[in-house]
Amino acid sequence: MDLGGVAYTRNMEQAHTDSLISMSEIDDAVSRILRLKFEMGLFESPYVQPSRATEIIRSKEHNRLARKVAEESIVLLKNNANLLPLSKNIGSIAVIGPNADNLYNQLGDYTAPQPEEHIVTILEGIRNAVSPTTVIRYVKGCAVRDTTQSNIDEAVRAANASNAVVLVVGGSSARDFRTKYIETGAATVSSRENELIPDMESGEGYDRKSLTLLGHQEKLIESIAATGKPLIMVYIQGRPLNMNLADKKASALLTAWYPGEEGGNAVANVIFGDVNPSGRLPISVPRSTGQLPVYYSLGKSNDYVEGTSTPLYAFGYGLSYTAFEYGNLTISREGGNITVSCTVTNTGNTDGDEVVQLYLRDHVASVSVPPVLLKDFAKISLKKGESARVNFVLTPEQLAFFNTDLKRVVEPGEFTVMIGAASNDIRLKESFVY
User: Fold this and answer.
1) What pLDDT shows up at residue 52?
2) Range with lowest mean pLDDT among 49-58, 88-97, 193-202, 305-314
């Protein structure tokens, strides 16, 4: 189905006149649409009932699910000296940054319309989480892209007066601070030309030549870090961004992606320890734009004459407030399937979730294959001190690849199984012959 386009309606009649398309072909296309409408009951009830939306959408269960999805997506990248979780009874906290209290920047492009009062920003989430006696000082500091508006000096004063700082930076798929939504859910700019530079730096039609934070965001990071206050940084983002400065300056670093309408509560729950972070990177974070391409299955490279070929943060990486130990790897075969098992133990002082990742290397193949591939993963919940056996079953399909005839084949040979907490954190390794 077309999404509001006019290409077909504008050109259909002329195409038929020019004998480019027959009436039977048009009838066939129309019949498919009518059949779908019939199956959906639209002939009997052709109009929606807007009043039903309040009965069906955004129930308490929906809100809980939105919060849970956001919580489990947050990736803790750095936590020096176990700064996190913070105490909810902290005396004062400065909440700073262009994405700290920005409704639409927590959402993605083509987001369904929703009332602003139902979106919880990170500032609001922190207010919901801390004790009534905690003093919260909020300053925006700067915009995502606009360099004509900033109050960095005020942000520095707020940081100096507080016990800790939560600095929320990153990007946006929203097209304006005051975004409006058309019926398709696409965001549209509501301001007059040149009145305001939109935050949007990601999404449809927004390619970039650099992955560096835009606007005055890096200046804001430098200025806040110079105060010496404990600095927790949160990225709101829809694409990989250069995190080198944050990695150097922040004591704790998280990425929340676009956390959605419950994102503020989710981020606060991680910062203050109601949720133990368990998200893992689905990307590799490069050290610079010039390092691209960089991904976990790239293999060894000696092409760079400066720096390193390893990413800043690797695919599958993510920290927890507890620690996990891996052991007792076994591999067995039954028919065409390979069963891989290991024991994971929570050796830390708090309950937590671990994402156990299985990577596979095919040592010899008739065509060039990636040196390592993620084949499976399992998320497990363990109480402190608890152990669990994790089992994976590798099927012939997972051992197969496309040969020169573009057919999926499994070739006999040696394979190495690697089990770990990330692509660069392999804890167990063993080979088998298939």
Assistant:
1) 80
2) 193-202
pLDDT given at position 115: 81
Q: Name the residue among 351, 337, 340 with its Cα closest to residue 386.
A: 351
172 to each of 38, 42, 208, 274, 315, how far by Cα in Å? 39, 37, 13, 27, 22
**Mean pLDDT, residues 332-340 taken together:** 96
Helices (H), 74-144: 122-129
Task: Give kind and range of the element (H or E) at residue 398.
Answer: helix 396-399
3-class secondary structure per residue, 356-373: EEEEEEECCCCCCCCCCE
**Which one is predicted more confidently, 180 or 373?**
373
Residue 165 tokens, joined = 């700082």
Which DSSP string corresponds to 255-298?
A: EEES--TTHHHHHHHHHTTSS------SS-B-SSGGG-S--TTS
In this prediction, residue 238 carries a pLDDT of 92
Give the 3-state DSSP-derived string for 127-192, with helices as H, strands as E and coil as C: HHHCCCCCEEEEECCECCCCCCCECHHHHHHHHHCCCEEEEEEECCCCCCCCCEECCCCCEECCCC
Report the distance separating Cα 46 and Cα 121, nearest Å.
37
Which domains are delineated in the chain?
6-40 (no CATH), 59-279 (3.40.50.1700), 324-433 (2.60.40.10)
Single out the residue of 152, 156, 263, 157 nearest to residue 217, CA to CA.
152
Rounded CA separation 131/101 (Å): 19
- Tell me if the bond preceding 85 is cis, omega within 30° of 0: yes
> Which residue has 């503020």 as its token pair?
264
Give dist(CA 151, CA 139) in Å, integer: 8
The model's pLDDT over 185-196, given as tens digits with 9 standing for 90+, comes to: 444 434 344 455
Neighbours of 33 (CB within 10 A): 10
* Closest-CA residue to 173 (of 142, 204, 150): 204
Higher-pLDDT residue of 300 and 352 is 352
Give the separation between CA 404 and CA 366, rounded to whole angstroms: 8
Q: How many other β-carbons are positioned within 10 Å of the β-carbon of residue 354? A: 25
Q: Is 54 exposed, middle or buried (0-12, 13-18, 19+ CB in 10 A)?
A: exposed
pLDDT tens-digit readout, 31-78? 999 999 999 999 988 887 878 877 788 888 999 999 999 999 999 999
